[in-house]
Specification:
With 123 residues, the chain is mostly helical. It has 2 helices and no strands. Helix 1 (19-67) packs antiparallel against helix 2 (72-122).
């Protein structure tokens, strides 16, 4: 999932903006933060559902492996399936970590811009 691009790629020059423009920028930045958090929650919810499905499939394969103790060929196939699922789980963990870090970075950038904008208003 992609987040909406922040209002500015770099911090705007608040000295060239009037107070109303700065206040508008702050409101839009706060709205951006809310949208980032909302999208992140939706993405986490979706990913949690997907993780639960992967977990169910993993345990189904594990149960099949436990009952296939007399067929080495089937055991090999099931073990390969378990390895694939384990790799998928690791990749998903890394994806979730990246999503969280990306969210935190975007929020931090927006909050820093808001703080600078407020400094300009009150100075």
């Amino acid at each position: 999932m992609y987040y909406r691009k922040p209002l500015e790629d770099i911090m705007p020059d608040f000295k060239k903006m009037n107070e109303n423009e700065i206040r508008s920028y702050i409101r839009e930045s706060e709205s951006d933060i809310e949208e980032i958090e909302h999208n992140y929650r939706k993405e986490i919810e979706y990913e949690s559902e997907q993780e639960a499905q992967i977990e169910r499939e993993y345990f189904q394969l594990q149960n099949l492996l436990d009952s296939a103790n007399s067929d080495p060929r089937l055991q090999g196939i099931l073990c390969e399936g378990l390895d694939v699922i384990s790799n998928i789980r690791q990749q998903r963990f890394e994806l979730m970590d990246d999503l969280h870090n990306n969210k935190q970075r975007k929020i931090k950038e927006s909050e820093e811009n808001i703080q600078e904008a407020r400094k300009q208003i009150y100075s």
